[in-house]
Fold each of these.
Amino acid sequence: MESTIVMINLFGAVALLLFGLAQVKDGVSRAFGAKLRTGLATGTRSGLRSFLSGFVATIALQSSTATALMVASFVERELVKPRMAQIVLLGANVGTAVTAWIVATGIEWLSPLVILAGIVLYRSGSTSRQGGGTALIGIGLMLLSLHLLSSATEPMRQSPALAAFIGLLDNAWPVALAFSAGIAFISSSSLAAVVLILSLASTGILSAGLIIVLVLGANLGGAIPPVVASLSGPPSAKRVTLGNLIVRAIGCAVALPLAGYGADILEMLPLSPAKLPVDAHLGFNLILAALAWPFSRLLSKLMLRLVPEEAQPDNAPKYLDQGELSTPVVALASATRETLGVGDLIERMLMRAADAFEKDDLAKLKEIPSLEKRVDSLQQEVKIYLSKLGREGLSEENGRRSIVIIDYAINLEHIGDIIEKGLLPQVTKKASLGLKFSEDGYEELKKLFHLTIDNLRIAQTIFVTRDFKLAKQMMEVKVEVRRMEKQSSERHLERLRDGRADSLQTSSLHLDMLRDLKRINAHIVSVAHPIMDEHGLLIESRLKDAAE
């Protein structure tokens, strides 16, 4: 009976830890999700920035799995290069290890205060503050779980059965590694596995060598959930998560025979024996990052061979299940997912056009016509699907949501037309004729291209979350784009009056691209109109004064 109570307490403490981790991830995503995604997508232009982006994102989300899946989706959309994605995950691994090290510093006594602060912040009202409050509550629950884990493992010191099991593992390190990897995989968290090892190590029943082996297993098991989650994804996403698993597996294979020597070295250092698991966890990931970083390019090429490209998918929708039409809420969610996919295609088209504009690379434009055909086909499928849903009779709220989805899909299709019929021939003309803009004109167009891409990413977030603050921010962006377009046109005309040869040569091209980018942004901003209208802030397509 006593052993049963101990196990219930232990599993309950682990469950609380996992729940706390989930709360932190959910809260941070709600409070800073858009900024995190944008930062992770744009902060990968160099190896060091990629490493730091992965590190910071994982510290914030408390989940290297979440970071891995996020960066895999960016690779799929070609926002992050595969090589940089591998470096991002090295930073994510170190971020998880640093998190484990921090929670082991004995600050669990702060849990009531952190939970109280989280509740106060959560009740403050705004979405971002509620997200921050949820994250604080999650951190407090994590710290509380450490205290419960310590109490739950205390009776184990005198357990003959546990001593026999530990002795078995100590004499079979590969089995111990597999056992720890299984725990990390089942819990979908290497952090949870390391914290559990930390609690067991505090009882004094684990040898230093076994601690290192168990930590290696936690690292290996923690890399498996992202691989499983990306199995149904495109090859580009699979390569990222599988590459991370291969790096950790190689690291564990090399470190396992050396675990005894590593234990001797750690015991010689002035480190606390009680914190040996987190010290070993951090040391392993730092060494692995340093050794694997130089081979990131080679790893990307290897993954390209191991996971080759699949045949080009047809234009059939992925999520529009006819069987879901009888359940409007589910059908609307599926239509939303499909429309988000259309937005991703538009983003790829814009990225292609922007890259070709900056690098005069016509090869980057070849995919745009086929992408535009997919956009046309999918938005038509979404409209047909939702028209069938409307025949079933919808509630007023579901009816409004259906119209919002259709409107957004139509606006995305219009953007695709502008890119194919406007930007594509314009950029092609620039590259094929070797035309050179003035330095100022080039920078103005480049800035507007990047702003347009960022606005589309925010629009995708608004479409899903219907966040009022983001919608209001998007409406203000429309004014900013109009101002940028007007200023660029005026400056261009000034350069023409000054007789600048480069401006004379590219005059019509410059003005046409400004016009088309402005039109694209107008379609993007439309995603905010229904939200502003619901709050009574939209009158004849203009935003009321914020003071009203």
Amino acid sequence: MVASSATHHLPARFEPMTGRRDETSLVRRLLQGSTRLVTVTGAPGVGKSTVAVAAAASMERSVAGLWYVDLRDRSGEVATAIAHELKADPGADPVGSLIAAIGDDDLLLVLDNADATVAETSALVESLLRSCPALRVIVSSREPLSTRGQALVTIGPFPWERLAASSDAVRLFTECAMREDALFSVDDGTLPFVLRICEATRGVPLAIELAAAQLQFMDVRTLADRMDDQLETLEPADPAARSLRAAVVDSWDRCLPEEQRVWADLSVLAPGWDLDLGEAMAALSAGAGRATRVVKQLLRRSVIHRRRNDDGVRYELLPAIQEFGRAHCTDVQAAQVQFVACMIERLQDAEDHWFSDRQGEILRRLRGDVPNIRQAVATAAALGRTDDAIRAAGTAWRQAWLIHGSVDELGTWLGVALASGVPSAYWGSLGHSLRSWVFAMTEKPGLARAELEEARSGYETVAASGQPADARECRIALLNAAEPAEPDDSEAVRLLEEAMQEQGEAAYRLGRYNTPQRLAARLLVQGRWEEGRRLGDELLERGAAVGDRFERSFVLTTRATAASAAGDYAMSETDAREALQLKRGLGNGLGVAQALELLADVAREKADPVRGATLLGCAAARWREAGAVRANYGPYFYDRATTERALRLRLGDPAFERAFAYGMELSEDESVDFGLRNVVEARLRTSTPQAAAGAPGLTPREAQVASLVAEGDTNKTIARKLFVSIRTVESHVQNALVKLGLRSRTELAVWYSDHAEYRRAG
């Protein structure tokens, strides 16, 4: 039998572990349940070994034996290496010796760095688990084992977006930097550069550690400026030290030639692509028949990193892996051309199938595709493929840019495309028309007129070329650009009616231009209610027939806007609520914000200022999330300032700000619930002083905990202040939420701030 466990059977750590508590806890929970084998996988440098060892250390007191074996450079002798570590004689049959040594003992075995021995380790571990019923195993490897019954725990980089001084990536950099330079500190002067460095690493711990080590040789500002070339910048001076380049080269060498070629082709993508785009790129070198297989193999080898987000799963090559692949791409231009073509095809698909029940899928896909849309425009422009650059920026522009509130950015990328060369008359006219529209929407009339003149010049060339279909498309684009610039609604209606005649039935595809909707809205603004509602009803019927939700919600929002302007608040409320219901889950935060603002105006009219102020807060959060430049544009004309002034006057600034802030804290789904069913509003109303007398009473300790929650303290901080356990604090918070009918710490903080008697008790 094996000797009992001792701390020296795990490698010593010389510094505290940063982050990774969730991953470590997951491994421990799996092994404490029915799982006997956990394989910790991930890309080079993400911290697989750290998690494996930390999880094992956390179980030291619950197992009879705990052993660690590093399998690096142990190919062909895995069983022998483990036997030696366990102080067992391997003899002529190392596997049999191990089985005899372990027997029925309750042991935990950590097999680290199994990358080069996956097949051998798989066979051995399966034999051991079959013969040793109490054995549990943790393996770290870039590839999963092929053993049955394993649980895979994939380790990703630290979060790297919206970093702050308290983020794990920044904390790790700071700790490592202070070991290299004891005088280093993160302050107002250094923090911006530290954030840039950690963002450039995309949260890869090894890259962060190697970056911090460079402070021996350069200051943090210089280091931040050199992070575009990580394989060179982060190479350690000590040849014996861990090297990011060596880790990536090792992964490259393990790939087959076909996998290496696909790796190189994928390096032209911006991070955050979906599987369809990855497979389309892989087809360049692997062929359509093998593209999926090769992408899966690169995922298995942890070359491709898979990350989850709110919209599902996206993929990327981490910076050093991408940099290495780009350097080893044998035909970069062919890969870039393939990439641009793939993106244009995806955008065209979005435009062609927009007016259907695929809208939710298209919106989610395009929201994730925005980095690669930018990349496609920049790539085509750099290649001098000006028409492709314009097409990449302008195809599905409503779905990719406008709906998500990125109108200004669309104008910027159209500028990049148009400046990259001499476009054809057709694409030049379309590009300038669309850019004119952008400038008109963002209140830059001089620039809008200049772009419109360029567009007209291109249109005249196309019209003279004898290509009627192209000429018709350019004319429609011109009419679309001219319409928002017209201060006279009657002239705008004339232009839209001309566009409708030009487009015919194609106008109802609503892919590139929503001409019928804008016409219906302008008719309503003009007071031509019968015509506007008739056209709107037709659009609603068409949308319902094909499973559309977005275009129907847009019609309802514009109709509610016109009704509000005309003083018909009952109709405005009905249409805005129906629009909000259709918006749920579409991922169109800008449209949700518009409907919420209309309902805020209805609340103002109904003398319901708390609801109105909260709705404005909900809407403001959605505008912020969309990154939108707010402007009154047809057909959504809404005077937010007037509504806000009226609500402030009714409530007073403190109460308005409190309700507004409450709305700002709500998620999009919660905002929709609030607008439709007043669920959150009911909770808010129970927090008014008038309702205090009827509210269930809190104990003195619960009131004290609520006061600290209102101050922004975490459960851990509250426990330290009150000299109680975190579990006790959690219990007090939960009791308070149940008694008061609340559901979050934020609601508890709002409730407490409004109750003078509990503030005194606290």
Amino acid sequence: METESEPYVRLATLRQLHQVVADLNTARSLADTLQTVADGVVAGLGYELACVNLVRPDGDLVVAAFAGSAAAEALITGRVGSRESWERRLSMGEGWGELRFIPHTEGWVLIEDDVPQWHTEGPEPRFEDEWHPQDRLYAPMYASGGGRELLGVISVDRPRNGRRPGPWGQEALQMYASQAAIAISNARLRANMQRALVRLEREQQALRASEESFRQAFEYAPSGMAIAEMGGDQHGRLLRTNDALCRLLGRPASAMRRYSFADLVHPEDVGTLLRTSAEGGRAELRLGRRDGTYVWVSLRNSVVADTADGPRFLLTHVEDIEDRKRHELQLAHRASHDALTGLPNSAELRARLSARLCERPHAAYASDIESLDAAYDGDGGFGADGFAFGAIGGRPYDHHVHTIAPDDEMDDGTKGLAVLFCDLDGFKSINDRFGHQTGDAVLVEVARRLTTGVRDGDTVARLGGDEFVVLADGLGAADAADLAVRLRNAIILPIRVGGRGVRVGASFGIGWASCGMSVEEVLQSADQRMYVEKRSRAKVHRRAG
């Protein structure tokens, strides 16, 4: 039952509350606002202690302001409580609207958590609603809007009248927490706006200062620089080039403005240019000089804007890498080619052969060609239980045209990848009689004759010693046999070395590459057939003798 004096006390409190709420919006900074929130609880709501816990960007809450006790303020200000512990507290106790009251009978379980707290001493309560020294009362502050983002929590202690707040006191604290949340949001907004204005002014000053620096850096850069249009009908057209780029390509600046990099790039490098003509794109490609030659360059792109909201341009840095690229190509050629003959070496041969082979189809859906034929629907794909992967004989399978071996006994028109294994006969005796220098000259001439005797696109490789391998695609069984005869006839002709003529013979074994075989199996097959031929020819010679 309300006493006669309570309406006057309430009116006085309302006046004080009105004043402290008004003070919230006069603070000049976020720190001032937080301290005003804490001071307002003590000055206007009748509590002896108040603490403002503010949510940090990482989600934890830090003690940002304190009022009512200098000793407690020095003890806990700046300390952090985990979000997990705070969520636990805000789910315990009694809910008074938005407020959360945890009586001392439950609060003992919170003594060991990491939320900063202070303890006030005092006697045990003498009546039911008397405030206990270890009672806890929290007022969450939520941002306006439907998301209910938690901004912080006001915690209070020791009401001056010694009693737990009644309905009116609860409503006053809840209203104050709502106004405090608005004031904190506004203070943050003002602070962000002030920082943005300061940053904008600094950026404008820096922009004005950098424009001249950019102009000088662009014009006098030791390597090529270009600015091109980005977007629109003229996308990629060169608007501006520096002296270094003009000198590199042997073209005047006035002529460069008629081109884009797509006009100047080597035809084989157009795809590389298109894949990297964006922000942060990098490419190594060839650009055409005025004299018709090409130079290797490294392109590096970045986007620049004329103004904050103005058109965007592509800034391209062009570095001459001709010497490095030539050196890299030389190293790559040495690593993949035989130093004596200049032919692809064993590693390169295996790499080229491996590129034409694949593993056998998985037995679960294609144990052989016939099972694929059964699944094939005849319309460029497979039925519901089949798979669409690439091509076997023109049908989808694994995105790969399978290599198939022709039949050696019956020429049915099948074309395959022939592997001709060549071993020189009598080469060791040349080394023994005339020395390794003569032997090396013989190997070089044999390599030349083999290369001359094959088609463009065929591979002639030196496997090692006096062994060579020829890869010839698109041949039938008879074609491969004819090729072996032509190459043998070319090799057995006399070779002039140091004023003398020497002869070597040649034995050829013809193998066929077929998907499902390994590289070693293919080479071993051709090697075995070569030895069969060599033994057969030796028998013929013995009979003739």
Amino acid sequence: MSESNGPGAVDAAGMPDWEKRFRAPRVSLPDWAEDAPDRSLFVSNATGTYELYAWDRATGGQRQATHRPNGTTDGALSPDGAWIWWFDDKDGDEFGIWRRQPFGGGEDEPAVPGLDPSYPAGLALSRDGRTAVVGRSTDDEGTTIHLAREGEDPVEIYRHRESAGVGDLSHDGTLIAVEHTEHGDAMHAALRVLRPDGTPVAELDDTKGGTEELGLEVLGFAPVDGDTRLLIGHQRRGRWEPMVWDVATGEETDLALDLPGDVSAEWYPDGSALLIAHGFEARSELFRYDLASHELTRIPTPPGTVSGATARPDGSVEYLWSSAAEPPAVRSTSGGVVLDPPGMACPPSVPVEDAWVEGPGGRIHALIQKPAGASGPLPTVFDLHGGPTWHDSDSFAAGPAAWVDQGYAVIRINYRGSTGYGRAWTDALKHRVGLIELEDVAAVRDWAVSSGLADPARLVLTGASWGGYLTLLGLGTQPDAWTVGIAVVPVADYVTAYHDEMEALKAMDRTLLGGTPEEVPERFEASSPLTYVDAVKAPVYISAGVNDPRCPIRQIDNYVKRLETRGTTHEVYRYDAGHGSLVVDERIKQVRLEMDFAARHLGA
């Protein structure tokens, strides 16, 4: 692995470290077939575009399974290992159909003939590869779920206007778990278990009978024929924890693990234990929980973040790990790196430092990276994460590392609305959407300046998706706080965005704001960057995908027209993809444009 030699470091060929981080081959955690565990599926950027790859562990053979100009990352491997399923949309618009191809290679074919294009809403495949449960979402129909048996027409088994999705299919194919939000709260799902003919078997709804808004999630059926236990996540103690629910008897087995943060889990292949993933204060760790003895055993992993983990039939655990300083790697508890793609090594970055800042809603966790040996005040990038139901962690990110290479400090903030700090913190942003998060951003900004870390005359506010939305909203509501704004695939005009976005996001917006733009116009107005565009003082850079179904282009154009009318300094970059690009060259181009814009307007 190469060493980073400070801001602007380049190798002998003239390629800077930040660009090498984007070009270095990456792989995802491999998915493996339940009944053919030597067959795996993973995502890699080895060709310069993120695509799906088939891997036969028995022979060591790997092949690229998908070949599309704008890349492919949404795929699944059938439990028998015979088929690779992948979602075929148009240039990143997320609207399309499932296709499949033989694991060993061959022609792609429509996986479920008879189903029209839609947005995906979950997929579950039977062990014999002959039955699929397919979730779909469209603006006209809401959510529908179909049972598709090979050689037969698909049959609709669920329909509702509100958002829903396929959770899992039981090991013997007799039970189907569905997450739904029929109660109208898209942030807190309820669960229903159906038979293949669509008749209900069991219901679990933590949104009923109390004043608290509690969610549930499907983690998976027990991997044993005839076993009716369903592993689920719940929020009954104010954070995510796992529980075993027997859908036949109704018995609920609360694990009550003595761990302080959010906890998720998946089954070991024989159903005797659970692989526990524990996240706390932007780091994570793994445990094995024995269901018979109730013993919790820590699985050693390095300090940092485990982005995914799976238990293999031999009892080993494979996991995708990284830290802010160390690039990601797929490792195994049996020793060594599982997948080590050929090509240039990814340069490391600098470690992250923690800061806890008192804010209007409680302590705010901020993660800070700065050039090695640098002392403030520094030009500082406030990089706001998307979601909003997401959080930044001590994990490797090429974008922040690129800013650090250029001599900037980078601050990432887990504002209210972020996951990982309890249910109350995540749910706090309702109704005053955007404004709540920016109160926390302002508190961290004030701390960074008063501590001597950040130069108040050289502050960049940036982010992608929800982070891009907060960037534009912050430039308008805090116009004297920021020197430059860089918004990537943002919400810019909330009302137009609502009317143009995919149906599942409309449901989320109704939950966050308490209704539609027609029902609560004052809330949409208060939370829309377009409302405050006339107050913007800082130069604004916006990049947007013209096929984006999440932050559609028309609402961005509306915002840009207002900037033009006012003569505000701005630049706009539009590219032919959806909510971000899967093409490495395009990602590098975008980062270069963003850094160049900041440098020109900061005088750096």
